[in-house]
Amino acid sequence: MKQKILLLPFFHIHMHNRLRWQVVLYCLLGLVFLAISTYYTIQESFRLAFPLGGFFFGTIAGVIFSRICRISWDHGAKQVIGRFDGIGFSLLVAFIIFEFFRDDIVGLFVNGSAIITTSFALLSGIMAGRVIGIRGKVRDVLREQNIIK
């Protein structure tokens, strides 16, 4: 019987608590940001191109920003753990700077009233991308340890 590879039901057994809660937090924040973006899109009757584009580019950025945390296997605890390294710290600083200037950066591509909707869609995409990136890294580590195929 082939093993299903899901995010939390199987991985949670082999993930350190802090890493697991980090993924749960990203999922919850992503859903909240997506709900806010959806609300403003419906309320203001915006075109779907702005939030969809923000979500798409946010997901790509989130996968890149998932590099912030180096995922590895802890032989003592027999769990997957996440740590910061030099490149990850540099990406974290870049992410924080991006957050401060997010509205200005989004404002270059989107007109005034759609900035909020696109910004929240971008944040939602970043959270989704980080979950996707972490999931891929955890899966790679579990494959290296011959826990999954």
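That was protein one. Protein two is written in the same sequence-then-structure order:
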Amino acid sequence: MIKELRSLTMAQFIDILCGDAKALRGGFSKKEDVKKAKTEIAFEFMSLSEPAMASGWLAGEARKVKAKAEVQLFKIMSNLIAIEAYSEVRELLSAYGLRGALSDDNLKGEVRSRLLRAESDCKRLLAEDSAVADSRTPKQIRASFDQQTASLMAFFKFQIDLNTINAAQFACLIAQAEREIKAQKAIMAKR
């Protein structure tokens, strides 16, 4: 079972991104495990090749976790309201950052409103995530990497064999090319 980017050739990495999990070489009992391994490997590639994009992806993941936590928090508050534990709900809302004296009826309405908003936010974030995941076909993914490979070969003036180079090295080449291009642009801007 492969879990690290450096253990994959670039061709295997592209196959994995296109949905062919055979390159991971088994060891996974569930589809969720395959998806998790694929995500971890893709994130490792992104971290090496485009650190800013990786940071943005992590921020998006943090937003999804926060949205899910808010849904659970407001469900707990709804349950507490159902057993008329209003003081505990007020404590939780205060810890959440909402202060103010609310009557029991207003408290019910506030929690119901916040729960609906949290569920809506959570659904929207998850829908955006699945729309992005489903937006590129394997053919488009392969074409993108073909274009990137051609650009790297032209920039560095050497051949790249995707069946030989490991994915971590390829990612580092992308980052190196980006740094050199930015440095060249900075020099040109000074003239």
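The helical segments are 10-17, 31-49, 51-82, 86-96, 104-133, 138-156, 167-190. Keep this in mind for the problem set.
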